[in-house]
# Entry
Amino acid sequence: MSDDFDDLDALAGEYVLGTLDVVERVAFAARLDEDPDARSAVAAWERRLASLAAAGDEVAPSAATWTRIAASLRAVAGEAVDAAKSAAWTQNGPQRAMIASRNRWRAAAAASTMLAVVALALAVAGSHLDVGRHPILVAAVNRGGDKPALMIRVDLVTRRVTVRPVATTTPSGHSLELWAVNAPAAPRSLGLVGTTPADLTMPAGAGADTTFAVSVEPEGGSKTGKPTGPVVYAGQLVED
Amino acid sequence: MTRDAARPDGTDPMGLGHTDGQPPRRRDLFVLATDRADLNALLVAVAANDGDAFRRLYDLAAPKLLGTILRMLKNRPVAEEVLQDVFLRIWQNARSFSPQAAPAGAWMNAIARNRAIDVLRQGRSAPLAGATSVDEEVDWFERIAEDRNRGDDMMDAASLRHCLGSIDPQARSCVLLAYYEGYSREEIARRYDRPVNTIKTWLHRSLLTLRTCLEGDGA
# Structure
């Protein structure tokens, strides 16, 4: 776009509107965790558009929805009390228990609904692989909280990408496909994710700021050259 | 749009009867100054693990948020599941809420819209047949223009209306369909029978116009 409308502001605006496609959206959400400028740009768009909310209708929820929320609260509060009683929580009991409660809630929130969309937590990976002289970047690609589904190791000089599946789950009759995402450019496929480690080549234009995303595709991979299925894992590179 | 006499004013945690089948009501929950103060105070209390405040916050805010989510997903059971998830997130993230950064209504609305869009883009919700008739279309710009915002938001709303009015009508409706109904670029492209890249250009141009116009007005 024009000089005074940079890519970040356009991305942030489209993120807030909701018009980014699934891979762009997941990649931008991952960037928000890392990039304060991106967070400011999103906050500015939220502010600009905030008064639109007033024009919407209200719809009273069914009583069952609050019942389910309250049940989740109670379940987690119970667990937190148990945690507080255990030896691990004897110091600073109440405060720690509260933190435990929130963390457990985080887990419960993810587990409580089939709709929990991939969380984009990025684990800083302590890789013990041979680093050599080259700057090596790694991404632990996961769905937040779990152990990484996939470790990706990139040598920016040789542009070699090593993909090591750790705990990926492939739905039957489908394939998992790995994408390099550098919005606003279209995502590029690196290939399918199997059960064994694979050596791949970084696509042109990909670099330290690339986000990796894994989507569920028809068996053999996307037929369109673009991700078509839901993104199940994503992560960004960090320096090893 | 008058203030509903039956609404809770902070002393009636169960006041909003959660009866189904009521026609949707329009009520500018997010703009009345008293509501804003209520919601902000409740959310601050929720951050301190106050379960009663959480229930009252739910009673006050859930109908507006469900309206937002349902408008985008057009599937009631999925919308209620998303609402549940949104309130779990509100509880979980309440400590990051800062009334100086954004009022509680806007903060919660952003969470609800984000969750609804995530679900839409992941393709996990299909509109229920007959949930809304296809031709029952809302002219959102007209709706915004009718809306009589009051309180602190009045100036913001007037500026935004003015700036939206300066965008070409077709490009403007792309922005509003995306914001209100969760349309993707592809869906907008099909609707207007244009290439997706054209829609992307319209969206970017509209956003740039809005930003320039709002910053000019707001300075």
